[in-house]
Amino acid sequence: MTAETIDLLQAARTAYAGDREALDLIDRLEVRLHEPLRLAVAGMVKAGKSTLLNGMLGERLAATDTGECTRVVTWYRFSAAPTITMHLRDGRVERMPIRRAAGLLEFDLGGRTAEEVEWIDVGWPLAALRSQILIDTPGIASLSADTSARTSRFLTPEESPSAADAVVYLMRHLHGSDIKFLEAFRETAAGAAQSVCAVAVLSRADEVGSGRIDSLVSARRVAQRYERDGDLASLALEVVPVAGLLAEGARTLRESEYIALRELAGLERPARERLLVSADRFTRETDATGLSIRVREDLLSRFGIFGVRLAAALIRAGAANSSELSEAMVQQSGLLELQEVMSTHFHPRAATLKARGVVLQLDALTRRSPRPGLDAVRAGIERFTTSAHTLRELSLLAHARAHGLPLEAGDAADALRIIGAEGVTPARRLGIADDAETAELAARVRAETDRWRALAESPLRDREAAEVCAVVIRSLAGIDSEVGASRSLRPAAHVVAPSRPGDRPGQDAAQQSEQDERGLRGQKRLKWRALLAQRHPLR
Fold first, then answer.
1. Nearest to 401 by CA among 426, 388, 428, 419
2. How confident is the model over 124-161, as pLDDT tens digits?
C-alpha cells in the first residue's frame, strides 16, 4: 500500500512541477505517509479528554485545567528529547519552556491567548508515542464558538479531508452533538471509502454509579445500551467505558500516594466506610485517620472518590506494593479494553489508514487545482478506492453493529471474526490458537474459503448476504496470501455492492505486508520535508 502511494505522490509531483504550493503539500503528504498513525482524542467540553490522554501516555503531559492551553489543538509525538513548540497563527514558531508543577507539565503561552496559537507540538521520549501520534483537541459544543471551531477545523473541515487517521471520541451521555460530530468525521475521514475509523468512549465512567465501588459495572451496561443505538453503532466501532481519572492516577501512581492509600485501607471498616461515604466527608476534619486534609484533598484530586475507595479495596485484597496497586487499578479503569480495541482495529491497519488520508488529500488537490497530465494520478486514486479492502472491513464491522448481518447467527459470528472483529492476525481471524502451525492455518483457510464460496453461490442467497460473503472471501484471500496456503484461491463469485468499492482477492494482504522499501530511501530528503510538514500539521 505504501509503495503504491509513494508512486502516486511522484506522479502528482511531476504533474504539478512548478507549482510551489502544490509541491509543498505533496512533500507534507509524503512525510505523513511515514509518520505513525494520527489518533485524535475528541469530545464535548469536560468529557475528560486530556485526563484520558495522560492515562494513555502513562505520564501527566496534557493540561487538564481550564486554562488557555486546553483551548488549543496539541500534538504529542515521540522525540528523543523533550521539546514543546508553539506554532502561531501568523506563521511564527516559538520554543516553549519545559516546566512541571506537582508532576504535571505546564504550558506557558507567554501571555498570548488561544486565539493567537494555531497548534502546539510536544515531543516526548515515551514508548506509547512510537507507534502513534496522539492529538488532544478542544471541546466541541463549547460556549466559546472559537474553541469549538478549532476542533471542527482540524477534524471535520468542510473542504478537505480530516487531518486525523482515526478518533477516540469521549462522551458522558449520548447527545445529538455527538452523533453530528461523528457523522461529520466519517464523511471527512473516510471519503469515498465510507469507512468507520472511530471508537466511542463512555468517559468518566466511575461517575455513572455515583462513585460506588461497582460504578464500572453500571457503566458497562450503559455502554452496551449505547452500542445498540442504531445511529451511534453505524458511526463508532465500539463503545468502551473508561474511568479516565483512575487510569491517569494508576499509571502515574507515586510511592507516597500508595502509603497514604495503604493507611486508609488499614482503618477499621466502620471508620473507613464513614470516611469514604462522600467526597465532602473525606476531606473534613477528622480523628479517624492521621492523613492531613491536604493529603486527602490531593488523593481526591488525583483519583476521585471512586479511585480512593477502589484503591483501599484492592490493597485489602492483596495489592502489596505500589506496582501491584497500579496494575490492578489500570485493569479496573477500562484503559486496557480501550487499548485492545485500538490494537485490534486501528494499529494493524495503520498503513492503509495513513495511505487513505494521503490519497484523499491528493484527490482534493486535483479537484481544487485541475490541470493537464493528471490522468495517472486520478487513475491511482481510483485504484486505491476500489482495492483498499481493509477499509471495507471496518465499514462492514460498523454496519453489522448497527443493523446485524443477513446471515444465520453462527455464520454471522464467523463472518465478523474473519473480517477482524477479534483481531487481524491469521489465527484470530480463523478462530484457532495463536501459536498454531502454518500447516494448520493453511488447512483452515482452505476449508473456510470453500465453505464461504458455497454460501455465496447458493441460489437461495439474496444479494445483500452475497455481498457480505464476498467481503469475507476477500478477507480469506488476504489470510491465504499471508500464511502462504498451498493452492491459489480462485476469485469469489462476482458481487458488486452499490456505491461501494469492488475487491480483488489477495491484493490487500500483500499491500499490508510491504516493508516500505521505496518509502525509506532518501532519508535526508524526508527529514527536510518533515521540517516543512511541521509548519502545516492540519493538512
1. 419
2. 999 999 999 999 998 886 656 676 777 777 777 766 67
Is residue 489 pLDDT above 50, yes or no?
A: no
Q: How far apart are CA 311 and CA 261, in angstroms?
A: 7
CA distance 411 to 319: 43
Measure the CA–CA gap between 123 and 80, rounded to whole angstroms: 8
Q: Which residues, in sequence order, are CB contacts of 214 under 8 Å at separation 6+? A: none
CA distance 508 to 378: 20
pLDDT exceeds 70 at position 539? no
pTM: predicted TM-score of the whole model, two decimal places: 0.80
Residue 382: the pLDDT is: 86
The CA-atom distances, in angstroms, between 482 and each of 4, 48, 195, 426 are: 19, 40, 23, 8
d(CA 421, CA 394) in angstroms, rounded, equals 9
Q: Nearest CA to 43 among 134, 161, 174, 159?
A: 174
CB 346 within 8 A of CB 391: no
Distance CA 216, CA 447 (A): 41
Average pLDDT score over residue span 8-17: 94
CA angle 106, 109, 112 (to 5 degrees): 150
Evaluate whether 261 touches 312 at the Cβ level (below 8 Å). Answer: yes
What CA–CA distance (Å, rounded) separates 198 from 266? 43
Q: What angle do CA 255, 259, 265 make, to 5 degrees?
A: 140
pLDDT-based confidence at 212, cuts 50/70/90?
confident
